[in-house]
Amino acid sequence: MTKWRSLRDAYGTAGPVEALLERGDTEDRAVWDELWSRLCHQGTVYSASYSALPRLAELAARQDPSGFVEPLFLAACIVASTDGPEESVAVRARYAETIRALHEVAEGLVPFAVDDTDFIYRAQAVLATESDSMWATRLEALANQELGFACPGCDEQLVMGLETSPALVKHFDDASVGVTTVAPSDPGRLTGSEARAYELTTTHRRPQVAKQLLALFGIFECPACHFTGRTSAALS
To answer: How far apart are CA 170 and CA 147, in angstroms?
Structure first.
């Protein structure tokens, strides 16, 4: 039996989390907004977040694949978070069975995405429940059509805009340095979670997402110092 009052969430003692999870069968936005706020506040997780995973997995498994996905998305974000009181490796080991169940749900949800944006979040949940890849939290940059990161060469803050083809890289707040274009990845050279994400886009016929993925995984040039490298290297 989980002793919620001995655990912590974003606001202190996690006592209220128990009642919120008991109401988890609802699609009430207020309930889920509070669960997100308490358990995965801007990507930060807490001791209560981990303890909530079995219940979230149970709720996720009950949902119709074409319906409510909030339990899965919250659980996936908790699993993927690297900003919490425990190392990700330890969390994944302790909740391995729960994460396997979440992964099964996540894979089953992907074919029912209603549009490209929905697909991106469902694919990200698959990645989150498979490994601790950086793309388990960053794939959603495709939904936002931009990715912010620091240049490894000069530490300037850059933004990759994915709404154009080719994708463009610019300085975060200094337009005077100009823009550069991104060289997209070769699909045949992708490995790990990048290859997995691309496989999902082709299997489920999401050509626009596939094209943008290759840009996201590609080689950028910093418009400030002209450092070149893969996006993944800038995020690691």
So the answer is: 11
User: Do 168 and 179 touch, CB atoms closer than 8 A?
Assistant: yes
Strand partners, 168: 161, 181
Considering the domain architecture, whether residues 62 and 167 belong to the same structural domain is answered as no
Predicted TM-score of the model (pTM): 0.94
Find out whether 180 and 164 touch, Cβ atoms under 8 Å.
no
Closest to 44 in 3D by CA, of 101, 98, 90, 86 = 86
Return d(Cα 199, Cα 140) in angstroms, integer: 16
Domain-ending residue, one of 113, 137, 161: 137
> Which positions ≥6 away from 192 have C-beta within 8 Å?
131, 133
Give the number of domains in the chain: 2
Residues 137-192 pLDDT 10s: 999 999 999 999 999 999 999 999 999 999 999 999 998 999 999 999 999 999 99
Q: Are residues 206 and 105 in the same domain?
A: no
